[in-house]
Design a protein that fits this description.
Number of domains: 1
Shape: globular
Structural class: alpha/beta
Pfam family, one: TIM
Family: Belongs to the triosephosphate isomerase family.
CATH superfamily: Aldolase class I
Largest sheet: 8 strands, parallel
GO biological process, one term: glycolytic process
Order of helices and strands: EHEHEHEHHEHHEHEHEH
CATH topology: TIM Barrel
Protein name: Triosephosphate isomerase
Helix content: 40-55%
Subcellular location: Cytoplasm
Number of helices: 10
Radius of gyration: 17 Å
Number of strands: 8
Distance between the termini: 13 Å
Length: 246
């Protein structure tokens, strides 16, 4: 089933989350034909989980730490996320990589912890503008995928991947659908090389300036298994239009 995920980033208070979900559920009363995922900030996860119970809309977190507990001030563990109803967690988003210095080794540890805890990770990969301009897109993406999945080659069916070109995130300049399709096809072939038994079991999503006007153009391609939506997911009606754009 294709996955449409909302990454709210650092937006919405608990009260705003309640208002959003009550409104959003009016637009998605029958979500069975696709998987819908909301990823609010940590402070809103508990109330979001309660409001989404029985709706068919899934709950996810935007980040996690790989240890279950301990002296890690400011971090949130996977058992904590699981208890409030999270079934997914976004790992390695470019903002975590480039604003907060997360490296491939840390991302790999988080993926391992997610699979051990039974929460499905969405691994984010993507190139910067200078990588694209110098023809390094495939090399950057391959390196990120291989390092993140190191030691998990037999478990790739438990992971989803989001291709998010860094230059397209929050800029209003999305990748052309044919360019996204090319990278998605490359990732799927790479996954098949890493684990031939996995073929087709890992969804590859597109993210980067997705909006109602272009979502359908991406989703008409079989190589694209879903969308990871940022700014356009902050309005419930707008996000619902993206959800039902295909």
């Amino acid at each position: 089933m294709r996955l449409i995920a909302a990454n709210w980033k650092m937006h919405k208070t608990v009260k705003e989350t309640e208002e959003y979900i009550r409104e959003f559920l009016k637009f998605v009363e029958h979500p069975e034909s696709r998987e819908i995922l909301l990823c609010p900030p940590f402070t809103s996860l508990y109330v979001a989980g309660k409001l989404l119970e029985g709706s068919g809309v899934k709950l996810g977190a935007q980040n996690c730490y790989y240890e279950k507990q301990g002296a890690f001030t400011g971090e949130v563990s996977l058992p904590m996320l699981k208890e409030v109803g999270c079934e997914y967690v976004i790992i390695g988003h470019s903002e975590r990589r480039y604003l907060f210095g997360e490296n491939d080794e840390l991302i790999n540890k988080k993926l391992i912890a997610c699979l051990e805890e039974g929460i499905r990770p969405i691994l984010c990969v993507g190139e910067k503008l200078e990588d694209r301009e110098t023809g390094m897109t495939f090399k950057v993406v391959e390196t990120q995928v291989r390092l993140a999945l190191s030691g998990l080659e037999e478990h790739t069916d438990g992971v989803d991947i989001a291709y998010e070109p860094v230059w397209a995130i929050g800029t209003g300049i999305p990748a052309m659908p044919e360019d996204a399709v090319s990278v998605h096809g490359f990732i799927k072939q790479l996954l098949n090389d890493i684990n031939p038994k996995n073929k087709g079991k890992t969804r590859v999503l597109y993210g980067g300036s997705v909006k109602p006007e272009n979502a359908g153009e991406y989703m008409k391609h079989s190589e694209i298994d879903g969308l990871l939506v940022g700014g356009a997911s902050l309005n419930p009606e707008t996000f619902a239009k993206i959800v039902y754009s295909f």
